[in-house]
Amino acid sequence: MATLSFTFIVDNVSHTTSIGTRRNIKKAVLFTRYQGIVNSSEAVCAYVGTKEINPASNLKIVHLEDSIPENSRTVITGDSQFASTSYSFASKYFTLTDVFGDYVSDELTPLYWKHILPDPAIDPDSVRILDSELNEVDVNSFEVVRINEYDATELPIDGSYEECAVYSNYLNSYNEETGDVVLYFVRYEAIGETHYEVLNQVPAYTEATFDDVSTITSDLKYWRKVYTISPGLTYYTITTPTVSTYSIRPMETGRIVLREPIQSDDTIPWFVNISNGAFSALRDGTSFSYSVPEYSNQDFSPIEPYKASIDEEAVYIRSDVIKVANGDLEIDSTFFVMNIIIKDYLGKTLYALTTDTSADGETYYEGNDTVIRNISGQEELVLWDGYGISSWDTNTGFIHFKREYPDTYTFLVSYYYKETGYLYSSLNLNPIFDEEYQGHSYVIYIVPTGGSNGNTGTQSSSIQWIKVDRSGRITDTSQDAATGNVDLKSEINTDGEYAFYSKSATTTAAGGITGNPVGQDHLVVADTTGFPENGIVTWTDLSGTERIVGFNSITTTRINFTSYNLLAGIFPGTDIYLYSFKDRFSSDTTNNYQWFILGEAYARPSSRIEELSLIDLRLHGGVIKESKYLEASKIDPRAVWARPETISTRGQVIPGDSVAVFKIPFTLLTDYGGDFTEQSILDIVEKRHLATGIVPVIIYHGAIPEIESISSTSTSITVCWASEGTEYSYNIYKSSMKTGPWTKDNTDAIVGTAYGNCYTLTGLVPGLVYYVCVTSISATDIESPKSVVWGARTRLS
């Protein structure tokens, strides 16, 4: 157990405490004991600890996705234009338009996105785009277009139309790190009423479907804004229905990039998500195709490419807008239904919203029970509201309500979204699962189709990794001879060609060429053990410029180069870096394999003083602030706090200045085979072992199971928990309420394993929330207290 010394000040008296961290990165939950003389009217306890270990605080990813030009982020900012029905393009994912605005320096600006207005009776002249303050944007920055509904060979001049679309380049956005929000709305009039919708942008042109084919001509309806796409050896060919002037731009989704794991604690794996991009590149006359075939192998629900998110707690943006984690929402009124359960700060359900308008007014159930809410002193049933969700942005996950809600409410959203990435579950980046990883880093890269790699297009996987220790030595790799790949695993283990990913050294001298006192053709280092036989060297010269030059041989202390003019300026004491494996990637023009590094990932301890959480729970009168108690418990809900009577807004004077923590096995309690009640233990602690004014905090511990994961189908829920040892068995309890009453689901006790356990509850009702907890049973038939309660909603289908 590593410790971190932390000094804090209470009433101008300095105190020091040691904060233990699990494996140097695990957050500790502590009650600090104030050692000095503190005013007796001050608090009895506070919360100090390292921040919870999670990917945001502990995982670092060096992103290297830009090293192939076709995959570079700078590509998506550029436009290409063509004036025909056919065009070839390197990326599979792009935006395409033939609608232009004229609001930038009198030049035509392509408008790549459209918001489809739902009502055919809309007055197109009334349409406006508003910012988050409901101020109108420049009317020249968008274009309103009617879309005809007729299936005819010629577009009628008059007649009805099926919808209006407002074209623009405005996009909603949300910065998770800063909380900054960019939000737009659309206002329009229909049949004398004014309506507001959150801007919901979709690409101006979409890939064609059968609905876009004319039943008369069997060709694409020429007024449809659609295209067809077909892959070639090097490019994708795009075909449009009519000859026009088009603008095209690559999309971010066309890139293959690493998406960092979502916020999660140290009890579950950290998997990066790799975007499902696709593009081609021509290198030295050879075509290479980059894609992620693993994408189609993951679990989708209910069908590819859609997944379900159940009871996800949304981010509160403002009183009428929330945001869910995923974009690319798929929502309709029948199959892909979105449900939102709104609870108050006590966890009581107040509202149930749905996009299924047919369910409007029906009774809402939790489990098999109805739910009563109290609004302004009136008790009433909670009913489904099929019209409370005003609009949403499928692109970014913003959801807009028809009414306003306070920020103390919790919003649990169940919805479907289009998966645009591949969860790379073959590599767990959580260092708690692999202690050796704390001294290593992972290099994640992609293997293309084509070239001397031997991969001829039959691969079922393209994402690979190598594991590198602190000295730069490669200790493991995922790439073997499968699917025609170079057998890198064997090469690492035998001939040492890839023994080092990178290696650093300090020069002791720089050797000159005879007759050329300025030129240098070799470098001298203390020891070249483990260096590659050939590769590249990088260093930073006196001007701060990074220099790169290749070397062709080494001796025990010497690195030899064929070119000398590039070495000028290297002096004794210069730090140099040598690469052997890394130079086989696409950053090197001689790379025949064209392996492409996506990024380098490593974990580090969270032990800096700035990364500590310090929450002062004190309130004058010697009690705990309830609001601060709630804030601290949100950081770690497993925390056990002082006696309930110390949490009060009235205040009570508690003399002294200390808290004592007692950890007692639950098996001492009468309910679990012991001889003591909780009150008798409290009496013993207070009266026999504590001075006046020292408040006891009693934590009961033992073989109480810890649930690790929960998942659901439409009629079942599977719960998994950590093992308490092979001598224990388990019972599973379920309830429609978080606080019970509880019903045991298993008939016979579940025999445990040494590593982990799972159990499936079956015969459940689709679309309902069930709460689950686990108990352990010892060899002497003592059943533990119930675990922390987890909840899950069964799927609708």
Tell me what portion of residues adopts beta-strand conformation. 35-45%
Structural class: mainly beta
How many beta strands in the DSSP annotation? 66
List the strand order in the largest sheet. 49-48-52-46-47-51-50
Please tell me about this protein's structure.
- 30% of the residues are buried.
- With 797 residues, the protein is mostly beta strands.
- Helix content is 4%, strand content 40%.
- Residues 1-48, 153-159, 586-590, 618-622 and 637-657 have low confidence and may be disordered.
- The strands form 20 sheets. It has a seven-stranded antiparallel sheet with strand order 49-48-52-46-47-51-50, with no helix packed on it. Strands 28, 31, 32, 33, 38 and 41 form a six-stranded mixed sheet that branches.
Could you list some keywords that capture this structure?
single chain; 797 residues; mainly beta; seven-stranded antiparallel β-sheet; six-stranded mixed β-sheet; 4 helices; 40% strand; globular
Briefly say what this structure is:
The chain is mainly β and about 800 residues long. About 5% of the residues lie in helices and about 40% in strands.
Write the layout of secondary structure elements.
Elements: E1 2-10, E2 13-21, E3 30-31, E4 47-50, H1 55-58, E5 59-63, E6 80-82, E7 86-89, E8 94-97, E9 100-104, E10 107-110, E11 113-117, E12 128-130, E13 143-148, E14 161-168, E15 173-174, E16 181-182, E17 185-190, E18 193-198, E19 202-203, E20 206-207, E21 226-231, E22 236-239, E23 246-250, E24 258-259, E25 273-275, E26 279-283, E27 286-290, E28 306-313, E29 315-318, E30 321-323, E31 329-330, E32 339-343, E33 349-354, E34 365-366, E35 369-370, E36 372-375, E37 378-381, E38 384-385, E39 389-392, E40 398-401, E41 410-418, E42 421-423, E43 440-446, E44 463-469, E45 474-477, H2 488-493, E46 502-513, E47 516-525, E48 535-540, E49 546-551, E50 553-554, E51 558-560, E52 575-579, E53 596-603, E54 612-615, E55 618-619, E56 623-624, H3 626-635, E57 658-665, H4 678-689, E58 694-701, E59 707-712, E60 717-722, E61 729-735, E62 743-744, E63 750-751, E64 756-761, E65 769-777, E66 790-793
